[in-house]
Amino acid sequence: MSLLAEQRREVIVEQVRTRGAVRVSELAEHLDVSEMTVRRDLDVLARRRLVDKVHGGATAVGEHPTEEPAFSAKAVRELDEKEAIAAEAAALVEPGAAVGLSAGTTTWRLAHLLARVPRLTVVTNSLAVAEALHAGGAEGRGSTVILTGGVRTPSEALVGPVAVAALRSLNLEIVFLGVHGMSAAAGFSTPNLTERDTNRALVDAGQQLVVVADHTKWGTVGISTIAELGEADVLVTDDGLAGTDRAVLEGEVDRVIIARSGR
């Protein structure tokens, strides 16, 4: 069975990562596609800064876009920024709303605050987010927390066809999406292809998309795009973002909220 374009590109990145360099002819044979198709894939991956395209093939660059840090490792990074972003994001939620929360350490911080908002219906594919809502007493304030099933990832997300099927049946007022990276070329991205499909289903379930991402996510590119920059209705980030980068985002996203981290 032939691979989808994003699956094919994931294979290419893995080949480059493992071997350091690959030839177009070798990739075409391995993937059972034409060399022209491989060249187009390399053009896309080079624009996303996932590989360096060279004459006749591609070579590896920088850090690997399929590497996914563990939740515990990400939870201790940019703490002040994430707290500030979470506070701004929580202010967008009214009592009684139907809310979606993706997995991620910033959405996890947001969950602690949303536990105080009464009568919410919160849908999440994150074990950590669900636990934060429960520990914060969300149910005692009349809220309902719905956790999808699925296969667990290093970022404590539940992903795969079970999660996607659950999310496709829902209609949510506002969805908060945490991301691995954001860039002008690749949009909002993830290093996990399966998590991309689940997050995309969550995005599609919401009337309004709010992306929560600290400044370190700018310029980081995961292997698979969840959504283009222009698909976000709101982006909440922090004041560590450079002015030129902020201008790019403001040109694509309807509303950019800059949280003051105090640093």
Give the tags.
seven-stranded parallel beta sheet, 263 residues, alpha/beta, 10 helices, globular, three-stranded antiparallel beta sheet, 39% helix
Concise structural overview:
With 263 residues, the chain is of the alpha/beta class. The protein has ten helices and 15 strands. A seven-stranded parallel β-sheet has the order 6-5-4-9-12-14-15, sandwiched between helices. It has a three-stranded antiparallel β-sheet with strand order 1-3-2. Strands 10-11-13 form a three-stranded antiparallel β-sheet.
Task: Describe the overall structure.
It is a single chain. By secondary structure, this protein is an alpha/beta fold. It is built from 10 helices and 15 strands. The chain has helices spanning 5-19, 24-31, 35-47, 71-74, 79-90, 105-114, 127-135, 161-168, 193-205, 243-252, and strands at 21-23, 52-54, 57-59, 98-101, 121-124, 144-147, 151-152, 158-159, 172-178, 181-183, 187-190, 206-212, 224-227, 234-238, 255-259. The strands form 4 sheets. Strands 6-5-4-9-12-14-15 form a 7-stranded parallel sheet, with helices on both faces. The protein has a 3-stranded antiparallel sheet with strand order 1-3-2. A 3-stranded antiparallel sheet has the order 10-11-13. Strand 5, helix 7 and strand 6 (144-147) form a beta-alpha-beta unit. Helix 5 (79-90) crosses helix 6, helix 6 runs parallel beside helix 7 (127-135) and helix 8 runs parallel beside helix 9. The longest helix has 15 residues, at 5-19.
